[in-house]
Amino acid sequence: MSPPLTPADAVSPALRQVKRVLLAPFRFRQWVTLAMVALLAGAIGGGGRATARLDPNRIPGASKVGEALKHFDGLAVAAVVVGVVLMLLLGLIFTYLSAKFTLVFVDGVIRGEVHVRHAWRECHDQGESYFFWQIGLTAALLATLAAAAGVPLWRAWRLGHVGIAGAWWFVLLLVFVVLPLCVAAGLTSMVAKDFVVPVMYVERCRVLSAWRRVLPLLRANLKAFALYASLKLALGLAAAIGGFLVALVSIMSVALVFLLPAGIAAAVILAVGWTWSPLSIALCVVCGLVVLGAVMFLYACLYLPAAVFFRAYPLLVLGGIDPGLATLDTAWGAPVPVLQPPPYVVNPPPPPPRPGTPAADWAPRPSAGAEEGSAPADPATTESDMLDLEEFAAPEGG
User: Fold this and answer.
1) Is-contact 63 56, C-beta < 8 A?
2) How confident is the model at residue 182 (pLDDT cuts 50, 70, 90)?
3) Contact 132, 100 (CB under 8 A)
4) Positive or negative CA dihedral for 180, 182, 183, 184?
5) Is residue 5 one of the residues assigned to a domain?
6) Phi and psi of 26, rounded to 5°?
7) Number of neighbours of residue 2 by Cβ within 10 angstroms
């Protein structure tokens, strides 16, 4: 029996698990399906995050925003409200899909095969529980930030403390309130996604029961979890650099593919004369969504090995800490599932008969109305059954 893996030792088996899932053997359909599952689960990342800096002095009329808002009519306000509501609904939909597909992605990495519909159905309750927990965590974080930072800033603004003193207050709140809260929320989310979700999958329990299972392990193995967080941070930085390069390759590849159609479309537009209208705006939006979808799809396919690694790595670490939660082999050989997840049961067999029950009482019988074209009943059997029925119905001594 091999010794349990430490977070540092689990790196090599996680790389071998990537090879087992994706390359032993290579299946294009599974690669694409698993890439889409990882994308919907939020496991595709690592690329650089572009940030935009807005200078109010460069925005025309930015100093007169309040005055411009007074001229908004009811239709414009309604459009803004509808846009905000649609964004919130889309956010909820994507959060729900991410929670559900996180369990599907775990199932695919453990089994080495992707069964989206079966995994979705088998882990339905766990996915919904994880979704509601994510909504609760986000709501708690926003409420805490509003109470700890938003209220003091709002009061300072109402009192007119907007000079140098106000700037210092903002920096202090950012450093000692906002940043620690965001770090705590990030660590909580990481523990939930890396360890709580696998416990939910293995034990088929909800998120609170999984947290009660994970928290004692955290307290008893603080050094191991601290080493895991440090290694994942270092590996995440390396993956971020690689993801940025993958993003560039994806954008350049899609640009080359769409360059000729875009040139033809531009020539046609210049020939017929372009005028902005609802139809032309809708056409531009559709084209932009197609290009964005192509970039995201190619990026997910190229980044998939890293996504599988970062899903298999915490599974191996969790199995090394608690063998009862092992889902992948922690031996130095090729990792294979040692804890077989519950098999998919499409048509469950009938329950066995109770002791002492005659076989004729539980054996399946043909339906009363036999379908047309079925085999005729045996006359001898029918006559025997009728005689038994008459004997059973006859009164005693009659």
Assistant:
1) yes
2) confident
3) no
4) positive
5) no
6) -80, 125
7) 10
In terms of Cα–Cα distance, which of 128, 88, 102 is closest to 40? 102
Q: Residue 53: how many CB atoms within 10 A of its CB?
A: 4
| Site of tokens 């919130």 | 88
What is d(CA 152, CA 176) in angstroms, rounded to the nearest whole number? 13
**If DSSP codes are grouped into helix, strand and coil, which group holds residue 203?**
helix
User: Is the separation of the CB atoms in 134 and 196 below 8 Å?
Assistant: no
pTM of the full structure: 0.70
Q: Which residues pair with 26 in a beta bridge?
A: 23
H helices of the chain, where? 11-23, 28-41, 65-69, 74-111, 116-122, 124-145, 151-158, 164-173, 179-191, 197-203, 207-220, 222-272, 278-321, 359-362, 379-393
Number of neighbouring beta carbons within 10 Å of residue 145: 16
Q: Please report whether residue 223 resides in a domain.
A: yes
Q: Which one-letter amino acid corresponds to residue 150?
A: G
Range of the domain at 223: 11-48+68-325
Give the pLDDT score at 371.
45
Per-residue pLDDT tens over the stretch 324-356: 888 886 543 344 444 445 554 445 455 566 556
Burial status of residue 325 (CB atoms within 10 A of its CB: 0-12, 13-18, 19 or more)? buried
Sequence-separated contacts (24+) of 169-172 with Cβ below 8 Å: none
What's the total number of domains in the chain?
1
3-class state of residue 301 by DSSP:
helix
Q: Comparing C-alpha atoms, which of 75, 45, 113 is closest to residue 341?
A: 113
**Residue that has been written with the tokens 């109010």 in this structure:** 56
Q: Is residue 338 one of the residues assigned to a domain? A: no
Say which amino acid occupies 390: E
State whether residue 275 is helix, strand or coil: coil
What is the rounded CA–CA span in Å between residue 190 and residue 228? Answer: 11
23 DSSP β-pair partners: 26
> Are 130 and 204 a contacting pair, CB within 8 Å?
no
Q: Is residue 389 part of a domain?
A: no
